[in-house]
Design a protein that fits this description.
2 strands, mainly alpha, Rossmann fold, globular, 6 helices
Amino acid sequence: MAEFVMKHLVDEAGLKNQFEIASAATSTEEIGNPVYPPAKRKLAEHNIGCEGKTARQMNRRDYAYYDHIIIMDRNNARNLHWLIGEDVDHKVSRLMDYTHRPGDVADPWYTGDFEATWLDVLEGCQGLLDYLTK
């Protein structure tokens, strides 16, 4: 969800050519699967598409390539540590760290509350974009 919200915000800001935005899982459960249907519906409610996206797993090349690695929660942090080791370049941060209420993004996998996740992701992406453009 965050990948497509961020792409939408960047596009609305006229900055599409200045960003490369991609998402990757820190676990293997969803590898190869499309965007989870309730997440896809939530994005569609806001006229944000996610067609063609399938899950892939984060790897060390991603860590070397990207300037920022944005995670959603503590579980991502733990899994990411196993995938890339220490964050020696200080690239990893949580999305909600760019808001006034740092912490984890509400995880709809366990709660089923995609509205809470939407609100967290939107606020986090807005804060991240503000941080990156200052």
